[in-house]
Recover the amino acids of this structure.
């Protein structure tokens, strides 16, 4: 090694050594540039042409490097180069280098690279020592064979490293690295080989005059190197220019695509459009030559790409950042089985799935959450409750279910509109979320019904009671809306695990029963489930279910109670009273099933059935007597009530003046304005309106002033106390006097004795109703009543 370095330092012109190195690197770099073009050529003929050009450029570069370095060698003796040997060394370099670059291009895998490296190393060695054989000087050359062998090994090692470093030479960095390694291999072999010789001057040796001088060799080398290197670069530029316009048009089309498009050979990126570069977060220059799958694209099963199948995975941006979900679909462009490790050429479309995943996530969110409040919906609540029950079976934690129903929500919603109702629900949800601490959670079941599932409290009953008290407090606070303060409240029902149920369904049912009891007890409170509630509430729910069937199964019947003129007892009309003829329970009184109908929402179909049947029966009577029908508060506030009444009158043929609708005063105040609007529309149809249970409301006089009623009915609680309590007697007299003053007929309900009847006649009461006149009875009893005297107490 010392001998080699000493030879380089003392026997060479270092300036020419640098020139030789630069020429070598330029030629090697150009050769690998041509090699990259050769690998991408699809036709064998075109590839062979590139092989020849690459071998010519590489061989001439190796040859030029050798002879420039030889010109740098200063032996102090007259020397020259034999023309034939010099030309032979050039041909050897060209042939070997062409074969070296052809091997990895046409042979697959590592074998081709190894063959190429070996051919390149041997070619450099053969060229060098053939060139040295053409070197003639006035002295005797002695060779150190160990150094010679070492130079060949160095050349082979460097050439192999260059071939493996080049890969497919698609990237500039690969070309530069491979060119540098091959340059080091060539220079190492040359200068090691020069260090292996010792020149002993011998005057007897004559240098022929026809040999090439140093000046001629310099000019020849410079001319050949310049032409070859320029020719190689020119070929690259010419081919690039020929394809530039076509590539520009194709790229414009590709860049216009919404999806990312990437061309890979094997698994290395060759090209990509703007959309893919944007997804990858890097320009094409940084992406070219990189491995696609495993480095940029991640798939659970990467083989789907090779099989032209649709694949879903993630794209990891080049510069870092959040992974992007993508879908890819590949198509084969060109099969390159003979192209070594580069592999087949494929084009992949890469679609950004973020918008689709976002939409799917939104759909999934909406499927699991309430759209207005953001709380878990019924399905999500049931799922989370089931999961919580499974967990606490193992952990032993406590769990309670709290059902919540808002008080007076419907009134606020009807009075102020649905936007006000939405504001209330949103505010309630926010307050629930603030009051409930994870893992406990809140959910909205629908309407104004909410559920809170409390999980993990230490002292379960006490913790549930404490939470209920807190919820009642926060939910009782007013809700601001449109410069108003909307007042709401809540009723709560609580069930405890496992005492009140071991399944989510049982806990919800029992909490709902407790809620029902809280509402029955006056609202604004909470109740724990108790076993005695179960049977009572189940009975009411069974009754509601059977009532729904009874409405359509013709189990309901109407009984009629007569109304008579007080002065002569003549029947002037009837009040329709519904009865339920249950197939197993027998006759059920209204006091038992009307509240159930109101709770279950069946009061509307029930009330409409009563109205239709009563009007149909009355229309068939021989005498045009009036028929009185009671309206529930729910019916009175239905926007379509006048339309329903008009339809019934048209269908049955009953004259509107014969229909008398009775309402209670308390029903008006649920939504006062809507009730008055409906009453005015009913009056416009010609229907009579009577105020029932007069005197039991809160502002009877203002109600009489607001609407011209056709009749006032004194509540039976006053009538039954005539002559028993002075105040009741005075109230009856006052109401009768008020009716005369306002010119509104007054009917006394609950007349049961002859004494009460005589008193009412003496006070000029218009009509009477009660057991003294007749008990409610089926339709067939109407003729008997019409003939019976009113004075008889029945």
């Amino acid at each position: 090694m010392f001998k080699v370095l000493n030879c380089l330092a003392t026997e060479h012109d270092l300036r020419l050594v640098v020139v030789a190195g630069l020429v070598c690197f330029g030629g090697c770099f150009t050769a690998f540039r041509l090699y990259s073009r050769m690998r991408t050529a699809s036709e064998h003929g075109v590839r062979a042409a590139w092989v020849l050009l690459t071998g010519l450029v590489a061989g001439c570069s190796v040859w030029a490097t050798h002879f420039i370095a030889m010109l740098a060698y200063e032996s102090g003796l007259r020397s020259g180069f034999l023309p034939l040997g010099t030309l032979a060394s050039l041909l050897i370099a060209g042939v070997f280098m062409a074969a070296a670059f052809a091997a990895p291009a046409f042979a697959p895998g590592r074998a081709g690279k190894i063959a190429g490296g070996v051919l390149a190393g041997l070619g450099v060695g053969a060229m060098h020592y053939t060139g040295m054989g053409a070197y003639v000087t006035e002295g005797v050359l002695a060779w150190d064979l160990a150094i010679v062998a070492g130079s060949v090994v160095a050349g082979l090692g460097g050439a192999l490293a260059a071939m493996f470093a080049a890969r497919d030479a698609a990237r500039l960095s690969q070309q530069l690295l491979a060119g540098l390694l091959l340059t080091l291999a060539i220079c190492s072999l040359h200068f090691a080989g020069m260090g292996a010789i010792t020149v002993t001057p011998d005057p007897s040796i004559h240098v022929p005059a026809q040999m090439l001088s140093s000046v001629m060799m310099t000019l020849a080398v410079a001319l050949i190197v310049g032409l070859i290197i320029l020719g190689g670069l020119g070929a690259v530029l010419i081919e690039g220019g020929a394809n530039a316009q076509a590539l520009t048009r194709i790229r414009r089309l590709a860049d216009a695509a919404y999806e990312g498009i990437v061309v890979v050979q094997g698994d290395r990126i060759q090209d990509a459009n703007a959309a893919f570069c944007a997804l990858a977060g890097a320009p094409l220059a940084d992406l070219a030559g990189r491995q696609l799958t495993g480095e940029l694209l991640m798939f659970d099963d990467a083989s789907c790409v090779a099989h032209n199948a649709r694949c879903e995975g993630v794209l990891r941006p080049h510069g870092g950042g959040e992974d992007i979900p993508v879908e890819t679909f590949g198509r084969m462009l060109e099969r390159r089985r003979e192209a070594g490790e580069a592999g087949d050429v494929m084009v992949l479309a890469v679609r950004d799935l973020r918008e689709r995943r976002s939409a799917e996530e939104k759909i999934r969110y909406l499927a699991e959450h309430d759209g207005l409040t953001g709380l878990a919906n019924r399905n999500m609540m049931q799922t989370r409750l089931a999961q919580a029950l499974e967990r606490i079976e193992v952990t032993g934690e406590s769990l309670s279910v709290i059902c919540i129903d808002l008080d007076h929500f419907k009134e606020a919603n009807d009075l102020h509109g649905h936007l006000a109702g939405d504001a209330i629900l949103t505010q309630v949800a926010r307050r629930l979320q603030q009051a409930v601490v994870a893992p406990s959670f809140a959910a909205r079941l629908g309407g104004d019904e909410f559920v809170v599932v409390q999980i993990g409290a230490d002292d379960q009953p006490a913790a549930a009671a404490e939470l209920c008290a807190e919820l009642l407090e926060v939910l009782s606070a007013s809700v601001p809306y449109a410069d108003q303060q909307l007042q709401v409240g809540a009723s709560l029902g609580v069930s405890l695990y496992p005492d009140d149920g071991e399944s989510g369904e049982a806990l919800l049912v029992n909490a709902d029963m407790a809620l029902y009891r809280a509402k029955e007890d006056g609202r604004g409170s909470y109740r724990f489930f108790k076993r005695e509630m179960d049977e009572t509430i189940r009975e009411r729910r069974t009754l509601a279910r059977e009532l729904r069937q009874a409405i359509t199964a013709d189990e309901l019947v109407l009984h009629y109670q007569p109304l008579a003129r007080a002065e002569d007892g003549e029947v002037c009309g009837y009040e329709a009273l519904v009865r339920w003829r249950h197939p197993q329970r027998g006759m059920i009184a209204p006091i038992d099933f009307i509240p159930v109908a109101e709770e279950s929402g069946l009061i509307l179909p029930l009330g409409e059935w009563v109205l239709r049947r009563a009007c149909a029966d009355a229309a068939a009577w021989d005498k045009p007597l009036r028929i009185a029908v009671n309206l529930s508060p729910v019916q009175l506030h239905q926007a379509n009530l006048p339309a329903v009444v008009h339809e019934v009158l048209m269908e049955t043929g009953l004259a509107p003046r014969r229909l008398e609708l009775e309402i209670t005063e308390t029903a008006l105040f649920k939504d006062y304005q809507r009730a008055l609007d409906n009453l005015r529309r009913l009056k416009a149809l010609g229907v009579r309106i009577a105020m029932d249970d007069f005197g039991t409301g809160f502002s009877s006089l203002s109600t009489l002033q607001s609407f011209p009623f056709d009749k006032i009915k004194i509540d039976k609680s006053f009538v039954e106390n005539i002559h028993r309590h002075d105040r009741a007697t005075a109230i009856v007299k006052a109401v009768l006097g008020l009716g005369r003053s306002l010119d509104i007929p007054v009917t006394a309900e609950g007349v049961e004795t002859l004494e009460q009847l005589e008193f009412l006649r003496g006070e000029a009461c218009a009509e009477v109703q009660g057991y003294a006149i007749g008990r409610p009875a089926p339709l067939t009893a109407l003729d008997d009543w019409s003939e019976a005297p009113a004075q008889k107490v029945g």
Remarks:
- The two ends are 141 Å apart (CA to CA).
- The first helix runs from residue 2 to 10.
